[in-house]
Amino acid sequence: MVSERKVKRKRKWILLIALSVTGLLSSLSDFHLDQILGIDYTVGFDMLQHGGYYLVLTVVLLYYLPLERKSGSFFLFLFSFSVLFEALQLVIPGRTFSELDIVSNFLGIAAGYFLINTYHNYFSVQKR
Considering the entire predicted model, what is its pTM? Predict the structure, then answer.
């Protein structure tokens, strides 16, 4: 059986890696997916990027940290970090702060929670 200490250590490493990658991507001044793909900037595409990133991040984290699936505090933790990373863009050259990005982050996190919990509930019913 896995000790509680090992579980806590695994949780810390997973969160550290996920938040470090998110922080790195948020701090890159020339990282604009629309420019990389060679398409024009649109608000809708920007919102899709933010929401999509946080949806994937949330699903991955909840997959590796299943005890957090029902945790409102973990949801707030993820959202708080998304707001922090967005606010840091106020001081990063080439990046801009946007309230719409915060809304997109929230929607992505909420969608990730919904998807992982729906998936889990569906398969737990199927096993009965």
Answer: 0.83
